[in-house]
Amino acid sequence: MSQPASEPAVTVGVVKETAPGERRVAVVPESIPALARAGIRVLVEPGAGSAAWFPDSAYERAGAGLAGRDEVAGRAGVIAGVGTPAPDLIACLRAGQVVIGMLRPLVQPELARQLAGIGVTAISLDGLPRTVSRAQSMDALTSQANVAGYKAVLVAADQFGRFFPMLITAAGTSRPASVLVLGAGVAGLQAMGTARRLGAVVTGYDVRPQTREQVESVGARFLQLASVAAAEGEGGYARALSAGEQTAQQAELAAQIARFDVVITTAQVPGRRPPLLVSAEAVKGMQAGSVLVDLAASDLGGNVEGSVADQTVLTGDGVRIIGAGNLPAQVPTAASTAYSHNIVALLAELVRGGTLTIDPADEIQAGVVVTHQGTVIHPAVAALLAPSAEGGTR
Ligand code: NAD
Known about the structure:
Blueprint: E1 10-14, H1 32-37, E2 40-44, H2 56-62, E3 65-66, H3 69-75, E4 78-80, H4 87-92, E5 98-101, H5 109-118, E6 121-124, H6 140-159, E7 167-169, E8 172-174, E9 178-182, H7 186-197, E10 201-205, H8 211-217, E11 221-222, H9 243-257, E12 262-265, H10 280-284, E13 291-294, E14 312-314, E15 320-323, H11 332-350, E16 351-352, E17 355-356, H12 363-368, E18 369-372, E19 375-376, H13 379-385
Parallel strand pairs: 1-2, 1-4, 2-3, 4-5, 5-6, 9-10, 9-12, 10-11, 12-13, 13-15
Antiparallel strand pairs: 6-18, 7-8, 14-15, 16-17, 18-19
Helix pairs in contact: 5-13, 6-7, 6-11
The structure holds nicotinamide-adenine-dinucleotide.
């Protein structure tokens, strides 16, 4: 039954993210009117948007209510977050509530088990099917990878001791920086385009052969490796390489990498450790002053041997390895705005006639709904939690 817009039946709560370094907020003020039109009211914890430069007053002006964290958790039927819910928030949750975020359930299946135990419906945007065109506007992996690819180039340029563009001045001519981007997905293509716009000479590489055209369309040259066969996987992603393929890839890349000033790595395989692309030997071959930015660096490892998430390692040979960590959080206004648009699109899909409806048979919901009615219903996550998979999530 439809509800009048003046009496929203669904309340979305927005709380402050508490993960270290996290500056994003799940819903920005400009999204509040669109949510109101969909019959959704928004309740915001004071200060939730301040690290992304969205003051409480902007939320109030847009029509959101402000309430303390506990009250938001108690009154909201849906809690929208960016990352995983903080332990204090989980402690306040009750059966029937919905939690939306990028919950990384394939990496942290235990959280799914915990949320199912409470009876919370967990919706994780990182499970969204990428090939369903209706889902594009909800694609938070894309919106955030886009920010990460852009920021990776700025981080590299900031640490690099020379200019990116060729500069001809009375004091001499500088040659442009040569930049290699490994992985030509969303982040990689954005990094290539951004480095090009800064004037660098850019080369891109991916195991999926169809990326050649995309690499060239952003003004970069495609690096062709002879040792690795095409590695197209499912859903537009790459497949994991065999051990032999990986060794051959690393060896061939090592020979190439020495001639680049800056290497930005973005390679991922869903639900797996990021592939190791740049060996210690390859790093050793680089000139002093070279910079590597590893976007895949996390507690699971990274694309560059020796990279550590959120840290910069300076090798004895003067090469800087930057473990990028959470780059979207470092561009918090743009990243939050894009993410918020993704949340609005998702909620517009889920809330019909003032009621939030969970339908795991729907092709989009099948990807994002992880737990419902006390059960982990996402097959891949449930498989990780099955007794035979205990102790090994990858
Ligand atoms: P991702 O983050 O999973 O991986 C980044 C890139 O790393 C991918 O291009 C992958 O091929 C590459 N990679 C993996 N292993 C590698 C290796 N060993 N060596 C070199 N490269 C390796 O990918 P993503 O950026 O999320 O994008 C995945 C795909 O989904 C892309 O094809 C993208 O264009 C597509 N996509 C489609 C839509 C849509 O149609 N709506 C939206 C978003 C993304």
